[in-house]
Amino acid sequence: MTIADNKKAFFDYFIEDRFEAGIVLEGWEVKAIRDARVQIKEAYVTIKGDELYLFGAHISALPTASTHISPEAVRTRKLLLHRQEIDKLIGKVVRAGYTLVPLNLHYKGGRVKCEIGLAKGKKMHDKRATEKDRDGKREVAAAMKTHAR
């Protein structure tokens, strides 16, 4: 079940490969995510040393959060992948000029997972073409809907 999608990633990037990663979260963050108080539109994945981190994901604390913790809405969260997957991703980013972007957050087996995409940036003309295709599909769907009546 999807919690949050990053629709902007598909507009700004060509997604070439996808990986599913676990996230290291605190208890209040899990509760907030279950309440759908998360946003990953501005988030991206960074490499520090030989580990991957989710940076810029915004998780708003619930108003009923404990008083003895100070929730930080935008903090760097570690992503959990197998070593060979991490090495492959780091190699692609460093050598081939790819970018890592979070695509969505979802549940799998009761745990919160982050799907990250290995992406190449789109040029402005590619973005315009994507928008043109989307508008064309929308017009065709509208015509089909009116024709069915």
**What's the CATH H-level homologous superfamily?**
Small protein B
C-alpha Rg (nearest Å): 18 Å
CATH level 3 topology: Small Protein B, Chain: A
Would you list the SSEs in sequence order as H and E?
EHEHEEEEEHEEH
The number of helical runs is 4
Strand content: 35-45%
Please mark out the parts with pLDDT under 50 across 5 or more consecutive residues, or reply none.
Answer: none
Instruction: Walk across the major sheet and give the strand order.
Output: 1-8-9-2-7-5-4
- Tally of individual domains: 1
Number of DSSP-assigned strands? 9
Give me the secondary-structure category: alpha+beta
What is the CATH architecture annotation?
Answer: Beta Barrel
Major sheet characteristics: 7 strands, antiparallel
Oligomer status: single chain
Mean pLDDT: 85
Global shape: globular
Q: Write down the CATH class.
A: Mainly Beta
Distance between the amino and carboxyl termini: 34 Å
Main location: cytoplasm
Region (Disordered): 123-149
Protein name: SsrA-binding protein
Biased composition (Basic and acidic residues): 127-140
